[in-house]
């Protein structure tokens, strides 16, 4: 499959052939495993997350969606930003903040924008997608979805992305992709983008009705319900059908690059 990736230390995206089944890359001298090469996250823009876009995720709230201050389920996409300090890569370590014992793993399909997107129609929305990537939208476990969750969502290293961007024409139907999460090689979560409340085209249309998405930006379609919890030492692998695998490990924050400067 045709894809683009960024070698660690470079700011340029390179076009390559990838094998999602083996998570390998074909270079001039043959096929190599990602275990042999350090690949940076392939992002050049801003990452926007979407809440409550899986049917089961919204249903799990029950009557709480009718509580104050809103009194009803959301009528527009509920968005948040994963800032640059959160960006991590395939094979990178995710820091467990001091005083915490668990983190929540958010397996998400990322839509990488290819051209400026303003007030899109559902019929042509997919033509604005350059490709698709895998995102581990990590967060501190919390219950509220109504208050800004910066301290829960925007910690250092809490947004692993990659290992590459699969070209849009390689994915026939982004609304029917199986997503699996393995913790220490044990399957802990399985869902599909067929369970989205707003399918990909509709989500793009609804979001760009009130904000512009620029080339390089990434829009996450959402995180399925029952997101698994992890502890220090756990190894995570997120698989999205036809795109590949994203792997990370949870470590004490004292062992990560973000704390080396303190």
From TrEMBL:
Claim: Hydrolase is one of the keywords in the record: yes
- Under which name does UniProt file this protein? Fumarylacetoacetate hydrolase family protein
Coiled-coil spans in chain:
none
Q: Which GO terms describe its molecular function?
A: 5-carboxymethyl-2-hydroxymuconate delta-isomerase activity; 5-oxopent-3-ene-1,2,5-tricarboxylate decarboxylase activity; hydrolase activity; metal ion binding
Keywords, alphabetical: Hydrolase, Metal-binding
From which organism does this entry originate?
Sporosarcina thermotolerans
Presence of keyword Metal-binding: yes
Transmembrane regions listed in the UniProt entry: none
**Which PANTHER family does this UniProt record tie to the protein?**
4-HYDROXYPHENYLACETATE CATABOLISM PROTEIN (PTHR11820:SF114), ACYLPYRUVASE (PTHR11820)
Domain (Fumarylacetoacetase-like C-terminal): give its ranges. Answer: 46-251
Pfam families assigned to the protein according to its UniProt record, in alphabetical order = FAA_hydrolase
Organism lineage string: Bacteria, Bacillati, Bacillota, Bacilli, Bacillales
């Amino acid at each position: 499959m045709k894809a683009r990736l960024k070698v660690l230390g470079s700011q340029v995206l390179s076009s390559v052939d990838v094998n999602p089944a083996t998570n390998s890359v074909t270079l001039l001298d043959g096929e190599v495993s990602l275990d042999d090469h350090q690949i940076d996250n392939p992002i050049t823009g801003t990452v926007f997350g979407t809440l409550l876009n899986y049917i089961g995720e919204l249903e799990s709230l029950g009557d709480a969606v009718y509580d104050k201050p809103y009194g009803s389920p959301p009528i527009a996409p509920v968005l948040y930003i994963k800032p640059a300090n959160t960006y991590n890569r395939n094979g990178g370590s995710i820091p467990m903040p001091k005083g915490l014992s668990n983190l929540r793993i958010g397996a998400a399909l990322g839509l990488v924008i290819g051209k400026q997107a303003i007030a899109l129609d559902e019929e042509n929305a997919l033509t604005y997608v350059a490709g698709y990537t895998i995102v581990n939208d990590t967060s501190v476990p919390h219950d509220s979805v109504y208050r800004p969750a910066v301290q829960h969502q925007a910690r250092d290293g809490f947004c692993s992305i990659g290992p590459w961007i699969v070209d849009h024409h390689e994915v026939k139907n982004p609304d029917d992709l199986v997503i699996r999460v393995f913790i220490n090689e044990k399957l802990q979560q399985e869902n599909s983008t067929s369970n989205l409340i707003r399918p990909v085209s509709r989500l793009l249309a609804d979001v760009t009705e009130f904000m512009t998405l620029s080339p390089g930006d990434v829009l996450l379609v959402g995180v399925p319900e029952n997101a698994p919890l992890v502890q220090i030492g756990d190894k995570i692998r997120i698989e999205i059908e036809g795109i590949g695998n994203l792997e990370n490990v949870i470590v004490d924050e004292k062992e990560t690059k973000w704390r080396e400067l303190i």
